[in-house]
Design a protein that fits this description.
homodimer, about 300 residues, alpha/beta, TIM Barrel, eight-stranded parallel beta barrel, two-stranded antiparallel sheet, 12 strands, about 15% strand, globular
Chain lengths: ~300, ~300
Amino acid sequence: MINQLTAKIRKTGAPIVVGLDPMLKFVPEHIKEKAFKEFGETLEGAAEAIFQFNKGIVDAVCDLVPAVKPQIAMYEQFGIPGLSAFAKTVAYCKEKGLIVIGDIKRGDIGSTSSAYATGHLGKVTIGSKSYYGFDEDFVTVNPYLGSDGVKPFIDVCKEEKKGIFVLVKTSNPSSGEFQDRIIDGKPLYEHVGKMVNEWGRELMGDAYSYVGAVVGATYPEMGKILRDIMPKAYILVPGYGAQGGKGRDLVHFFNKDGLGAIVNSSRGIIAAYQNDAYKDKFGPENYADASRAAVIDMKEDIAQALG
Amino acid sequence: MINQLTAKIRKTGAPIVVGLDPMLKFVPEHIKEKAFKEFGETLEGAAEAIFQFNKGIVDAVCDLVPAVKPQIAMYEQFGIPGLSAFAKTVAYCKEKGLIVIGDIKRGDIGSTSSAYATGHLGKVTIGSKSYYGFDEDFVTVNPYLGSDGVKPFIDVCKEEKKGIFVLVKTSNPSSGEFQDRIIDGKPLYEHVGKMVNEWGRELMGDAYSYVGAVVGATYPEMGKILRDIMPKAYILVPGYGAQGGKGRDLVHFFNKDGLGAIVNSSRGIIAAYQNDAYKDKFGPENYADASRAAVIDMKEDIAQALG
C-alpha cells in the first residue's frame, strides 16, 4: 500500500491528502435540507448529510489527489449512524480509486491494540468466516503506550500490506507540553521518531516503509530534524492552511527524491466555498467545485515551494 | 458522577470495575450457537453473541459492583454491528444502575477532541434538536497531544457532570518506553500526573475531581508516588489479575479515606469460568455465576489488602 501511495503521488503530482472532517456547519443548506426531509433532524439525518457532502467532494477531487483522510471523531459524534457514514465514506472513496487513511489515533495494549488493528485494517474471524470491519488502507496510531501498542498494528499491516502513521509531533499549540520535553538531551518527539524508524525497518516497501509518522506543518524546524531521523518514513503533515502552515514550511518534510511527505488539508478544501478566496466565485450550490479549485491552488503552492 | 461513583463504592464496599472486554473465545458455545443460528457467522452474529454474553454477566454482578468498563476496541473490531453492541451494552448497564466507564482512550486536538467528547459523553446538536451518541458516564483519554486534547473533554464534563480518566502510567510491559523517560529529573508519567492534578482543580466533586487517572496495578511503587501527586484524582487501576497485579499491590493507590481508587478486572471476571479456580464448579452454562464468584473473591482480596 505504501508503494501504491508513492505511485499515486507521482502520477497526480499532488502530495496531498484531503481531510474529510465534515462538521455540520460546513455542509451546505440544500444538502442538509434534503437529508433532514428524508430522515428528520436526527442522527440518521446528520449522517446522511455528511455522507452526501463527502460524496460531492470526492467526485470533484478524486482525479486530482492520491488519498483522503476521514477523521473518525467527526462521524463518531453522531453515534452509530455517524460511524455508518464513516464506513460508507471509506468504501465510496476506495471505489473511486482513492487511498484511505483512517484518522483514528487509536492506541492501546496487546490484545486491545490488536482488536483496533483488526477492526480498521484487517479481518476478524467469526467461526469459519472472516470479515473486514472498516477496511481503511492506513490508520493513524498514538504511541504513548509504547511498542506494545504499536506492534499489533504492524503485525496486521504485514499480513494485509497496509500501513500506519504514528503520531510523533502533532500540529496543535499545546503539543509541546509533553512531546517537546527534553529526555537525555533530546525532545520526546525525537525519541518517538527513532522508534518509528526502528518499527519501520521490519516493514519496508520499495523505497519507503509501511510505518509512517505524523508531524505537524506548524513545526517546520522539527520536521527537518525528524526527516533525518526517519529517512524511510512517509510523513503525514497536518496543519497546512487553516492551522497556519504555509507551502514554504513544507520543504523540510520532503526527501530529495521529492517524495516522503503527504500534506493534509481539511477545512481549507472541504469548506473552501465558505472561504473569502472562493466564496464569490462558487456559492454553496457549487461547494464541490470550490473544493476542486482549492486542491488545484494547494497543489500549485506546494509545487512552488518545492521548486 | 464522581460523587455517584464514590457513593456506590461505599455502598457496595467494592472498589471494583468489571471490564467488559468480550473476545469471542470467552463466549460460551451455547451463546455463540444461538446467535449464529439467528444471524449466521456474521458480524451481526458475533455482535449478538457478545451482547448476550455481557448481559448474563451484568445481571449476575450488578448488585455487587459500582461500575463496568467496556473496552470499545473489542466491539469496534466487529465494525458497525460491534459498535451497536457496545452502545446496547452501555445502555443496558445504565438500566441496571451501573456506572459506565467507556474505555475508549481517545485523544485528538481542538474540534476533533470536542467531537469525541460530544459523541461519548455529551449531546450533539442537529438543527433544533440534540442527541446523545454513546452516552457513557466516564471515558479514558490519551494525553499525548497535551491540554488541547484534554480540555475539550473537560468542557463537556462540566456541562454533563461526567468525568474522564487520563492515561498516566499504563499497565503494559513497554509502557516505560516513553512514560518512564526522565524529564527535568522526573519521569514523564509524573509530569502527566501533575497536569491531571491541575486539570482536575477546575472540576471538583465533593471530595474527588471529575478528572481521574489511569495507573497500572503492575507498577505499585509508581502508584504510590502518583497517589501523592494527584491527591484528588480517582485512580482507575488496570492490570489486576490476568496481567499480574495482586491485592497487596493495590494499597498504594488508595487514600487514607479508603477511597480514591477503583480496580479493573476484565478477563479474570468475565472469563472466570475458563480459569482453573472456577472451571470445575461452574461450567460454560453457568459462566455468569463464575463471574459472580470471581467478583466476590476479588472484593475479599482487596479488602484484606486494605486491612
